[in-house]
Amino acid sequence: MNAVIRTRQADPEAEQALLAAGTPPLLARLFAARNVRSPAELHNHLASLLPYQSLKNIDAAAERLARAIQEQERILIVADYDADGATACAVGILGLRHMGARVEFLVPDRFKHGYGLTPQLADLAAERGTQLLLTVDNGISSTAGVARAQALGMDVIITDHHLPGDTLPECIIVNPNQPGCAFASKNLAGVGVIFYVLTALRALLRTQQWFNPQRLPEPNLAELLDLVALGTVADVVTLDYNNRILVSQGLKRMQIDKTRPGIQALFQVAQRDMRQAKPFDLGFAIGPRINAAGRLENMEIGIACLLAEDPATAAELAEQLNELNRARQEIEQTMLQEALALADQIIVGNGLSITAFHPDWHQGVVGIVAGRLKDRFHRPTIVFAPTGNSELRGSGRSIPSLHLRDAIDLVAKRHPELILKFGGHAMAAGLSIREQDFPRFQQAFESVLTELLDQDALTRTFLTDGSLSPEEISLHTAETLSNQVWGQGFQPPCFYNQFEVLWQRVVGNGHKKAGLNCGGHTVEAMFFRCAEELPAKIHTVYRPIANQWRNQYELQLHIDHWEAG
Q: What pLDDT, on the 0 to 100 scale, is given for residue 348?
């Protein structure tokens, strides 16, 4: 695989400031290369969170929620069907109930209702006697759904983080990405937005002296940070300083066993040690098990697990999610193999994009398969599956050079009748089209990309943190790195070194384990999805990992890329 290897440049002044504050030299270099400018940005204290007051309309949202609580109105939370939506729903339910609210939730069925607050969902809310409808992790594009809800006599508050379209719903909206919002972090996940709304609501109810007369203890919202951390990491939002505080605080609660029974149970079925909880666990072990419910059945199972108070109930629901995740993995593998068999059709010549469709594919797994194809071919990828009503639902994943939602928006503007609906972010987006229009969409999407990308953008680039000395390639380094909060936009460190290959053998399904030597130091390395015979000397891009084996930790290098030499 052709690749370009580049080195992150650390700001010398920032690095010196971090060193002067006592930051270990390696960490000082890594943080300075990730735009950490002062030691204060390493203090993940709750007091350092951005104030809620700068979120547009948050006071109006708090006032409407306070009135609903005081008048005992029926509040209904409409959640998205992914891990961010599930955790946001759980945070909203728990926080509002602790403040005395009558609140229930409703999650759209991916297969029946589609995404977001639709008119159909508004009808269902009305049937439940809803007076105030509160969205979490969705709603910014739900103009028709909001209008329907209001026509049926409901007030609506939207809490969301997705990018808005040209037209906003006419209701109270809390979204850091809406026009005119001064909130400094545009990277809050949906769960982060509702957490902030609850913070504003608690402050308002405190000033209104609501809690004591109701004999309600003022809620400690920090108890919800395990859920906030899980949703933030699982949604792969950028971990800016504000999000790193939220994630760090949530992980600490997990590590000291102050977390929800449902999260405990999910760690158990995933066979992960919660006392050593890391962002990796949330993103690759816990999050996918919750997402499996929304992909294959109904996210109510995932939310019920997160809300469970009884450990036995939580364990039962976590096992259901584990089984759904196994089924999801099997479906994903089948679809991926079918997609790879179609590679000649979905990658035409020097095409810049991949668009794939098969009539037997499962719409709940298209996003994952799109991600796998994107990783393999390093092209913006959209995978479609039928919905059963002559429409296709697609999910896309992008490469760093392309803002995917903006590209789809450009297609929609040039071909107004082609895309039925769409939304998303820079790196991930979803859309619906008519089945008969799939070839037209392929052509239109590829045409747009010819203006936005060139062939150079399709060359994979590895941004490394330079080389480690032989002495630094150690278990101590791996453990030091694992104790930090890394993630999207604050990438886990990787390094570039030359090694001598001492031995190698095939392990598992197409993987390779090897013994490598660097400066007299020998270390074990894993080469995933590697069928080739390794030459005597290689240059590698790698990550040092503290690998747990039989209750012991040992150093292992995970190889992201290698070249002979």
A: 62
What is the H or E stretch that residue 25 is in?
A: helix 25-32
- Does residue 302 sit in the same domain as residue 406? no
The whole-number average pLDDT for the span 221-244 is 96
pLDDT in tens, 353-405: 999 999 999 999 999 999 999 988 999 999 999 998 899 999 999 998 899 99
For residues 104 and 117, give the distance between their C-alpha atoms in angstroms, rounded to a whole number: 15
Q: In angstroms, how far is CA 24 from the centroid of its own chain? A: 30
Q: Give pLDDT, residue 259.
A: 97
Residue 342 in 3-state DSSP? coil
Total count of domains within the chain: 3
Task: Clarify whether residues 121 and 239 are in a common domain.
Answer: yes
Give the global pTM: 0.90
Please say whether the beta carbons of 355 and 447 come within 8 A. Answer: no
Residue 335 lies in a domain: no
* Residue ending a domain, choose from 430, 458, 486: 458
Confidence label for 96 from pLDDT (cuts 50, 70 and 90): very high
Q: Sign of torsion, CA 301 383 388 140? A: positive
Q: Is residue 194 part of a domain?
A: yes
Does 422 share its domain with 469?
no
Measured at the CA of 242, the angle between CA 241 and CA 244, to 5 degrees, comes to 65
Domain check: are 197 and 288 in the same one? yes
User: Do the strands 511-518 and 102-106 form a parallel or antiparallel pair, or are they unpaired?
Assistant: unpaired
In a domain, 435, yes or no: yes
Say yes or no: 486 and 440 in one domain.
no
Phi, psi of 228 (to 5 degrees): -65, -45
491, 492, 496, 497: CA torsion to nearest 10: 170
Indicate if the pLDDT at residue 219 is higher than 60. Answer: yes
Which token pair is 20?
A: 């002067």
Q: Is the pLDDT of residue 250 over 60?
A: yes
Q: Which domain holds residue 300?
A: 52-322
Over residues 147-153, the mean pLDDT reads 98
Structure tokens at 404: 């995917």
The CATH number given to whatever domain includes residue 494 is 2.40.50.460
Q: How many CB atoms within 10 Å of residue 179? A: 9
The string of pLDDT tens digits covering residues 98-145 is 999 999 999 987 777 777 899 999 999 999 999 999 999 999 999 999
- Residue 306 belongs to a domain: yes
The three-state secondary structure class of 476 is: helix
| Cβ neighbours, 10 Å, residue 257 | 9
Whether 515 has a pLDDT exceeding 80, the answer reads yes
